Amino acid sequence: MSNSRLLTRFIQSCCNVLIRSFLRIKTSGLQPHRAFLQLEPLFKHCNGRGFSSPRKIKHTRNYTTRANTMPKDNKTKKSQSKDTPISPEVPAGPVSRDKTGCVTIAIHAKPGAKQNAVTDVSTEAVGVAIAAPPSDGEANAELVWYLSRVLELKKSQVTLDKGCKSREKVVKLSASVSPEEVLERLKKEAANS
Predict the structure, then answer these.
(1) Where are the beta strands (DSSP E) in the chain?
(2) pTM of the entire predicted model
(3) SS3 of 48, please?
């Protein structure tokens, strides 16, 4: 048998196995993560001259019953004792530290302004006017450049973490500065603007 015929029979065999197993999933309601356990290695069906018919495939395991699933634990939530006082949640503010220890700043971007400026510093976000249009990432690049200048950091130490296509953004600072120092510099820039 030529190599091209052998390859086409192999591809047909693979497709038939996959189609049959997905039809079995659809009709039996089998859980998707267990469906792939039914697929045997396709090379197992290879004999010396070619590939066997997909009708001859025998599956060694049958996961069609739902009795094989693990029972869920009925854990009851422990209620807090009345003796322990509940501490009020302190708002994190626009500047905080993330799990990795980097300082993050929540920013409300206002692209298309005449000049770059920190407009306001609230408890939720820092308002920043950006003198660039919100297209092709120009406003994001301008925001990173402006914040690096305001915070007196290298441009490589200021990165946009979240919100590439949104006005609500999160900027991550990889420099060794404290959140209080960053907040102080932002408030100082807001007062000057």
Answers:
(1) 95-97, 103-111, 117-121, 126-130, 158-162, 168-173
(2) 0.53
(3) coil
Length of the chain: 193
d(CA 35, CA 45): 19
- pLDDT tens, 109-131? 999 999 999 999 999 999 999 99
Out of 24-28, 39-43, 185-189, which region has the weakest mean confidence (pLDDT)?
39-43
Partners of 118 in the beta sheet?
128
d(CA 92, CA 12): 58
One-character DSSP codes across 129-153: EESS-SSTTHHHHHHHHHHHHHTT-
Q: Which token pair is 122?
A: 């609230």
Find the distance separating the first CA and the last CA of the chain, reported in whole Å: 80
83, two tokens: 């003796």
